[in-house]
Amino acid sequence: MVQLFYFADLFGVAVFAITGALMAGRKSMDLFGVLVIAVITALGGGTLRDVILNNHPVSWIRDDTYIVVASLAAVGTVLWVQLTQPIHEKGLLIADAFGLAVFTVIGTEVALQHNVPLSTAVIMGVMTGVAGGVMRDVICNEIPLIFRKEIYATACIAGALAFIGLRALDTPPWLDTGIAMLVVLFIRLAAIRWHFSLPRFHLLDRD
Amino acid sequence: MVQLFYFADLFGVAVFAITGALMAGRKSMDLFGVLVIAVITALGGGTLRDVILNNHPVSWIRDDTYIVVASLAAVGTVLWVQLTQPIHEKGLLIADAFGLAVFTVIGTEVALQHNVPLSTAVIMGVMTGVAGGVMRDVICNEIPLIFRKEIYATACIAGALAFIGLRALDTPPWLDTGIAMLVVLFIRLAAIRWHFSLPRFHLLDRD
Amino acid sequence: MVQLFYFADLFGVAVFAITGALMAGRKSMDLFGVLVIAVITALGGGTLRDVILNNHPVSWIRDDTYIVVASLAAVGTVLWVQLTQPIHEKGLLIADAFGLAVFTVIGTEVALQHNVPLSTAVIMGVMTGVAGGVMRDVICNEIPLIFRKEIYATACIAGALAFIGLRALDTPPWLDTGIAMLVVLFIRLAAIRWHFSLPRFHLLDRD
């Protein structure tokens, strides 16, 4: 079970690194820039969570598999695109939804182990899922997409709440983890399929 | 006294969250984006201070009132604006100056409790007051306003220095806190009223 | 030796602060903005490293010489430019390469003291060298230059690897430090002289 979860985590790292590498490519960065953006996208959310929770050592400080996986995913993306293979956008979105589900559950669980208030646990789940992508967008000089496009973080919030609720009912770990991940996946995939969005808040700029 | 200070702190959180929500509205973010920007604006400065000072647990990890207040302020702002009530800009500026005063004094005091050099205590006071707003502007893809408009951080520096000076004189807590807050408030309000600005440093871009 | 290294560190702080002040000038910031950008450029990389490694207290929290040096360098830059002295661009680039060399070696050494995996030590060396400049560019609303221009971070990677290799061979401290710094300096200066660049990754934006 723990083993399975570790591989799911690494899968999430790889997928997020790919989205980082693609964004770096859109900005015509050099190979170092591609690596850095990929690593930040993949590991930034978890690192921020651990630093704020004082949960040391941070995962990739302890175990360099994370960095290696993120780097290989970035290099693989560059090679794949250079060999003129098109990116399978839909496949990437589905993989990204899976990564989001894993990261959200991990983040929520780490927070619960620190005996924080429940609202903080939800925030830590969401932060783990989305902060890496926000850092990617901010460094690449874009307003973070997740604040504007189809439902994304809302899926994390629902998944984190499901996880906390099931954990409170003392369900076995494989069940609460599995259901919470399915909640994130289902909401996110439905939002992609039918273009669900949250209402936007428009305010005229009067500066 | 402690009770009073706690409410002043929450008032600052609410005001800063409102400025965050308004900025998110100018960028047409969705409701989740509004919440995130509001929370980062309200709690980002104190969080950065605590992480750098190794002052754990961070306030909102320990006590979820902070998150709740920031979220309610964000949601309230959206509702208020949707119901076509105009924002009272002047009122908001004055409330923001009050929040700035509270945050600066809290930040300076937390730093002094860690026995840091005095210049570091001043920086921590300023950081608590302004870093949330800087994060808001950076994520929203704006060059931080406080680096360009009327005197803002300078008010924090003066307030932090006043607080450190009075504390060294062993004045009672209500007095040093009160005077330091008044220093921030007075300088900031005077700058708004008469449009005081620091001189700017212009350098031709030769790239 | 330790004394010498301390001065080299402060020299790096001053140089990085100057590049921060110049960037702030290109964005027409006020004096406070110039100070903040200078300090973040000079101390941001080391602070991020220490926070992620849980290496407290952060250098400038413990010893305010760092802040003083960075501030003086920023103020000096403004005065220098105002008195219409042109900036000696080439001299600044060489000084920056020296600062990069010092920061990289310090960052790698701090990481090694925490018994991290070797890949993490390399990342910490690179982070110490480049993260301050990345923060400067992100806050100033620019895509970080080091992800696009001549070889920069690659010099840090080579220097960090050289340092780790020599340290494993148990060479005396002055030798591994000296050689690793020379590696960074040599690669960086060669890249400036002959305009070496890493290949870029171009991806058409299909949004």
Number of helices of chain A: 8
Residues in helices of chain A, as a percent range: over 70%
Q: What's the end-to-end separation of chain A, in Å?
A: 55 Å
Shape descriptor of chain A reads: globular
Protein name (chains A, B, C): Membrane protein
InterPro entries (chains A, B, C): Gly_transporter
Subcellular location (chains A, B, C): Cell membrane
Membrane topology (chains A, B, C): Multi-pass membrane protein
How would you describe this protein?
Three copies of one chain form a homotrimer. The model of chain A has no long low-confidence stretch (mean pLDDT 88). The longest helix of chain A has 25 residues, at 2-26. Chain A is built from eight helices and no strands. In chain A, helix 1 (2-26) crosses helix 4, helix 5 (89-113) packs across helix 7 (153-168) and helix 7 (153-168) runs antiparallel to helix 8 (173-194). In chain A, 75% of the residues lie in helices and 0% in strands. Chain A has one domain (2-194). Chain A has 207 residues and is mainly α. Chains A and B meet through helix 2 and helix 6 of A and helix 1, helix 2, helix 3 and helix 4 of B.
